[in-house]
Amino acid sequence: MRKWIALILAAAAGAALAHTDESLDGVKAPHGGQLRMAGPYHFELVVSPVGEGVRERPIVVYLTDHAGKNVPAAQASGLAEISAGDIQAIATLAPGGDNRLAGVARFAMRKDMRVTLSIRMGDGKEYKASFTPLDKPAAKHAH
After folding, report:
1. Is the pLDDT of residue 23 over 70?
2. What are the C-alpha distances in Å from 111 to residues 33, 108, 116?
């Protein structure tokens, strides 16, 4: 019995480590964005790097569970708070199809850019995740 308990605890610890920001940065995200864990979900942030300087840019967030299955976004909503140098911006995120939330904000793509998502799911629970979309290592494998 002790061996089974030890095995279960070891597996649980391994699963918890598999969802750190550092480990998720090593995963090839399905849409080329950056992945973060938020409660029982994975959020993938995709920000278009097209064009230089401060401009309106689309922000897209894909919602999945830990197994990578799409989570419907129809009843979800959220905010993306963007900090890029001295520019602060907020994008209101609304359902944009299947498992996607989308919005627009005016900011510059910078290496020091930070994005904080606050997503309210259909059940009313809110989840937060922080991203550094231009400061991540190249993905090594698919998740």
Report:
1. no
2. 15, 10, 15
